[in-house]
Amino acid sequence: MRRLLLPAIIFILSFQAALSQKKEVEKLQWPKEIVKNGTVVILYQPQLESFEGNILQGRLALSVTPKDGENIFGALWFKARLATDLDKRTALLEKIDITKIHFPNYTDTAKIEKFTGLLEQEIESWNLLMSLDRILAGLEEAEDIKKISVKLNNKPPDIYFRTNTSVLITIDGDPIIKEVKGEKFDYVVNTPFFIVKKKKKYFIKGGKFWYVSENVTKGYEETTKVPNDIEDFAEKNLPESKLDSASANMDKAPELIVVTKPSELVATDGEPEYAPIEGTKLLYVTNTSDDIVMEIGGQYNYVLLAGRWYRSKTLKDGDWQFVEPEQIPEDFANIPDDSDMAEVRVSVPGTPEADDALLEQTIPQTATVDRKTAKVEVKWDGKPKFEKIKNTDVQVAKNSDKTVLLIKNKYYCVDDAIWFVSDTPQGPWIVSDVRPEEVDNIPPESEAYNVKYVYIYDSTPDVVYVGYLPGYNWSFAYHGCVVYGTGYWYRPWYGHYYYPRPVTWGFGVHWNPYTGWGFSFGISYGWVGWGFHPYRGWWGPRGFYPGYRHGFYHGYRRGYYHGYRRGMANARYRQARYNNIYRQRRDGIRHTGIPNNLRERDINRKTRPATRPNNVYTDKKGNIYQRDKSGKWQPIRNPRPSTGQPATRPTTRPSTGKPSQRPTTRPVQKPTTRPVTKPSTGPTTQPVKKPSTRPTTRPATKPTTRPATRPSVSPQQKQQLNRSYQSRSRGNYNYNRSRSYSRPATRSYSRPSGGGRRR
Hints:
By secondary structure, the chain is an alpha+beta fold. Among the domains are: 1-26; 31-143 and 606-688 and 699-713, no CATH class; 158-265, no CATH class; 365-468, no CATH class. It is 14% helix and 28% strand. The protein is built from 9 helices and 45 strands. Strand 21 (300-305) and strand 22 form a beta hairpin. Helix 3 (132-142) packs across helix 6. The relative contact order is 0.16.
């Protein structure tokens, strides 16, 4: 009986999972269909026009087929508040407001009135769920993303090259030695690694190896002679049991490189082995986890670090120079997308991968904060000390464990991407519904630079709507690419406590299209001694908590060691949920992404998938076009109504950002006007002449067949429509790719990611 029961249970669970996945796909599918009192409305995928704060504006093509009538095409402009769920790659359009409806060349006022009322009634009560990948692609039309850039420090760090197994041990400035309470040895405070001092010797615990030296920064050798008290302390406080298999199976202790300045380690497994990149005049190094490319013509080695390219004639003792993105050799863009080096395309301006990453920089992670339950506690190391940020009216706290700003006699604290305010530095702190304008002037040279990427969108007496862009996690757009960190070194605070600052270098930060930024420490997460520091704040690249309970152990592995693969499967979905800062809070967040109180049946409940192809578009003036299978654009003209009077009802109205309260009767405008500006500034109309000729035949009820005689499509219109088509196609591709959850691994390597942050 049990043998029969188990397969049955597996079948039922698989069937339920398949049904759930089908429903999820249907929610995000375009076009959508609404059926109301015998009238069928087809809504085609939106074309986006602007995205500011959390307000998305766009337009979409639609068709309306009455029960006893012909297919009428139109355009609809909308404005909606966007709630994002970056983990699930979805976005919810809330409070949809229709700002304009236009039926080109159609003059039956009775039907216009009826159709407009139907659309307003149905659509404005929506909670519309959309694919974030499709929204991102649609924004390519609205934003000139290549112009988005910030001023950064791209001076190369000290770059060490090794052909043997090595680990970079980073100390944040000159070593700070402090006594371990209750023990007879001291430890180095300003490092995430386990470095202790007893008498005149320094001991480092890395993975399963011990090292000893009489100098804190050099001369370390492997040892088995470790004082018992240090060994016992390490056993209790270090997570050696969590070692990955690569480190656990190592039979030789790696070389230690201990640094006190911003540095990076580039390593190969033996002498570099080069292989050609197909279709290019480039070579790449195969026996490394690092991204090393050689340009054959110039004989330069290019290394990708934190999203930046540096080049040198030699890897050993190279004279490394930063390469501006615009100066990267053109052949880099020709690297095939199925190449072992395809992942570096994201750092080549103009590639689809780079554009996708840039668009990610424009999308906030949103949340609704409960004013009553959101709390913050600021810890001060002594009396509060503030320092003015150069060229601003902002002062930043130097000895607090969180970012605290003094602006116009008010104290502002940013904690987990939420603004708090107080009249005194000691509190009490309450959720702020005001974001000081002065923060926009904070330069990258300040350790508080990232708070300018935390926003307040709206508020009520109970809640505050907030969000943050990737810049809060130190991810920035720079000249057509995405890079990590500002490149500046920020002096940490040390008094009784040590408060570290975010860093750019020393952790092997790298971009992956499925997980975003990850980082490594050379060999294994078992080398990092997060747990033993009595109190030390957060450390390392921002946006990741240290420790296994926050996903460090299950992070994205990307490093090279004896054939271990990068472990791409489910990487985005395994790690991404740890990247949403709002989900890491234990209090104050009512919801992040889709509201918790929004039931399943309330999302897209008034629509169902349509069977028609998603190939109808509208231009900015509201004209409708269809793209046929051959790639040609065909204008769609509405039929002449058999009856009708001149229209007297407007199809445009001002946008308020909230559902409208409509009167039962309204005046209507003449059909000889149409919008010429975006709906964000209110409707603007101007007279237009009716076309002197009309098609002699009526269109069929479906857009797949139309009159043979049509007006021509101008080159300007064709260019605009082609851009819309390309954006839609790319969005669909990215949506399908993100739903696949995994991608075959290429280069054989395995390097972990994880880390910590200063809040």
